[in-house]
Amino acid sequence: MAFTGNENHDISFDDAAKLTLRYREKAGSEARKGGFFGRKAIQDLLEQDDCVGIRYYYGLDDNDEQVLVLVGTNADENDLVGSTFLAFENAVFCPPTCGEDNVLNS
């Protein structure tokens, strides 16, 4: 199977709320609920040559806290890695930066 960049990832907010609630219940109140990546970082990844989407990897920082690493991916399902490509981590985490309470974060 090749990636096209048009894969359907849609879910309802009801389903999204169930998924995030289940995670919060299992992870505990002190766990990270999510994170924020700015528009520029996402656009920069997507604007790389041959990029059709973004893949994420779980990682651990120096404090053993879970992080997401984002990389571009091509149609052949390969990560765009190396010195000419971009990777991002440094999300702004929730908590502490969660915005107003909503069905996904509370």
Helix content: 10-25%
Counted beta strands: 5
What strand line-up does the widest sheet have? 2-3-4
**Average pLDDT level:** 94
* Unreliable residue runs: none
Can you summarize this structure?
With 106 residues, this protein is an alpha+beta fold. It has two helices and five strands; from the N terminus they run H-E-H-E-E-E-E.
State the main characteristics.
106 residues, alpha+beta, two-stranded antiparallel ribbon, 23% strand, three-stranded antiparallel beta sheet
Layout: helices, strands, pairs:
Elements: H1 13-27, E1 34-36, H2 39-46, E2 53-60, E3 66-73, E4 87-88, E5 92-94
Describe the model.
- The protein has two helices and five strands, in the order αβαββββ.
- With 106 residues, it is α+β, with helices and mostly antiparallel strands.
- It has a domain at 33-106.
- It has a three-stranded antiparallel β-sheet, covered by helices on one side.
- 5% of the residues are buried.
- The mean pLDDT is 94.
